Amino acid sequence: MAVIDRLRELIVPLVDASELDLYDIEHNGGVVRVLVDHTDGLDLDAITKLSRAVSRALDEHDPVPGRYTLEVSSPGLERPLRTADHFRGAVGAMVKIKTWPDYDGPRRLSGVILECDDHSIRLDTDDDETTTLELEAISSARTVFEWGPTPKPGSDNRSAGKSEREAKTS
Prior knowledge:
Oligomer: single chain
Number of helices: 4
Largest sheet: 5 strands, antiparallel
Shape: globular
Strand order of the largest sheet: 7-6-5-4-8
CATH architecture of the largest domain: Roll
């Protein structure tokens, strides 16, 4: 059984028991990264409890050969996108994408994800073109948080913090 499969087998029940949502598990070199989320947001207490539970389970079952560092955190505002579910969850969001070197097309793209299925995404690129990109052509992708101006006190500026493109579609 692959290390990542064994990690998933040990970690998923712990995340479920903590009533959090598993976003991703990564094993990259000397780091095991567990990214969790919750619809009402996360607090440090929930992350700490889960981190201790995962650490105990990994110590007990020793699924990772050699030394490693455990990181348990939120995926953050600029979330990595690796699976079709991640891309589906980012429909409507601004993203930056890097394609594999052998991809016959641009190496770097950015824009808003218009739609996603199990195999591809449709992207409204920064140069106002629509392109379809196969998920297997993507080497890395992440959402991009766009800082906007702080609304003036007393103003009803609901589009503050949104990109121009989002404000137009609101």
